[in-house]
Specification:
Cytochrome p450-Terp, domain 2, binds carboxymethyl coenzyme *A, 17 helices, mainly alpha, 2 domains, 5 strands, two-stranded antiparallel sheet
Length: 428
């Protein structure tokens, strides 16, 4: 055996084992042979929240959390944000290479011709209560789409998977815009195939009576934000998409589960939570007291910290630049001053330094979305639209990975041993 192994001595039995190491990992299943007796189940690993467990092999996104590096298929996020379109990036994520002109033309055409959603979707949207949260609506209607495309369950047919990927990419802006209109009580604006991906979405969102003057600076800023959100390897929502998708369910249902995961305040919902936090702080003079409360464990500094990044989130760096461009167009968001000061104080405070807590992608994005005219509870819908290509690429990779099976973690049972049923009159 080569020295790419791990020697393990089980002190309970004195037996030693040699476990192969590959790609910096040992296989958890190799531990199963470590037993104290023949009827022992064998050793497992215990890893709540998967802080040190690789659940898949992936060639899509690379993150180096210590050095603040993020790459999609090898391309640095900074170059993609500077030079690519969102559709190019979405093609790159799914297909593995940047598209040629012909490939991009086909991808764009395919997406443009699937932007409409069945009009019954409007009935679902109209059925929501007047104050329904946009993310609740979005995950509902994306899940509902599975019933309009029963063919989507043919997940082992590559051509079929392609068409579902196209459908999801094409329909998410329409659904996101419809959700926006529903929350505002505005009539729905239908897709226009003469507009590009971002232009069409913005038009469906903001056009009143067919009138909308696009602002190219704001549209490119939105496109960059979508690119920055497009994938982030095995985060909570992507793991949800992979986990749910591993049951063989159609991608609409799996992606709907991803949207549900993204909704949470510790994940995509943080962009909304940041704005609420800035509102709560209200004024710069209240920042020190707020920081003290966070340090005392009374709530978190939203938009700070990351499971993987232990240095400045490279997306947050790029977003700060986008913020400058957007605010030059829209005028300064008064909350920016509070955010900048909050960041300054936090980055020089021992509590945050020691724990390596830096601003993440959500710290400044909400301020930009607000300046663009989106309401606070809508921000995470924009994150979902950006993350769609990542979810789809990861789903495709999972489906075609011969090593994957239905996801099914183990547990450490901590409950009671078997006991006899107790008739109700004997229960205390
Ligand atoms: N404010 C204050 N303390 C924090 C924060 C924060 N934002 N984040 C982590 N900590 C502390 C935490 O209390 C713990 O301290 P101690 O060691 O004394 O118990 C330590 O830092 C480690 O935290 P953790 O909870 O073990 O870290 P995690 O990797 O499980 O959590 C996180 C990562 C992103 C959920 C967390 O940092 C957090 O809650 N941040 C605020 C929410 C947020 O901004 N989420 C968006 C993440 S980026 C976008 C995305 O991908 O969704």
């Amino acid at each position: 055996m080569s020295n790419e192994t791990l020697s393990v001595i089980d002190n309970r039995t004195g037996k030693s084992y040699e476990l192969p190491i590959a790609d910096g990992t040992v296989r958890a299943i190799d531990l199963r042979q470590i037993k104290t007796s023949d009827d022992d189940f064998g050793l497992m690993t215990y890893d709540p929240a998967f802080t040190n467990t690789a659940a898949c092999k992936s060639a899509i996104t690379y993150i180096d959390g210590d050095r603040g590096i993020l790459r999609y298929r090898g391309y640095p996020i900074e170059e993609l944000a500077d030079r690519a379109s969102f559709l190019e990036v979405s093609y790159l994520l799914s297909e593995g290479e940047l598209p040629t002109q012909a490939q991009l033309a086909k991808w764009t055409h395919d997406i443009q011709y699937h932007t409409y959603v069945h009009t019954n979707i409007i009935k679902f949207l109209e059925g929501f209560r007047y104050d329904a949260h946009p993310m609740g609506m979005l995950l509902g209607v994306v899940g509902a789409l599975s019933t309009f495309y029963p063919d989507a369950k043919n997940v082992h047919d590559p051509e079929n998977r392609y068409i579902q990927r196209v459908r999801l990419m094409a329909k998410i802006p329409t659904l996101a815009a419809f959700v926006f209109r529903q929350t505002r009580g505005l009539p729905f604006e239908f897709p226009r195939n003469d507009l590009d991906y971002i232009g069409n979405y913005v038009n469906m969102t903001f056009s009143i009576g067919g009138q909308h003057k696009p602002n190219p600076v704001l549209q490119r800023a939105l496109e960059i934000l979508l690119i920055l959100h497009a994938d982030h390897e095995q985060n909570c929502s992507t793991s949800a998409v992979r986990g749910v998708g591993s049951s063989g369910v159609d991608p609409f249902s799996a992606i709907s589960a991803g949207i549900a995961a993204l909704y949470g305040p510790l994940h995509g919902g943080a962009n909304e939570a940041v704005l609420r936090m800035l509102d709560e702080i209200g004024e710069k003079k209240n920042i020190p007291a707020f920081i003290e409360r966070v340090k005392a464990g009374e709530g978190r500094l939203m938009g700070f910290g990351h499971r993987v990044y232990k240095s400045y989130d490279p997306r947050a760096k790029l977003i700060k630049r986008v913020a400058d461009e957007v605010f030059a167009e829209t005028g300064l968001n008064p909350k920016l001053e509070i955010a900048v000061e909050l960041e300054r104080i936090a980055l020089s405070d021992e509590y945050f330094i020691k724990r390596k807590l830096y601003p993440n992608v959500d710290f400044y994005s909400g301020l930009i979305y607000q300046a663009m005219g989106y309401p606070t509870d809508y921000f995470t819908v924009l994150f979902a639209m950006g993350r769609m290509p990542g979810w789809l690429a990861q789903w495709e990779e999972m489906v075609t990975d011969g090593e994957q099976k239905i996801a099914r973690p183990r547990q450490v049972f901590t409950g009671l041993e078997a006991r006899p049923f107790l008739p109700i009159e004997q229960r205390k």
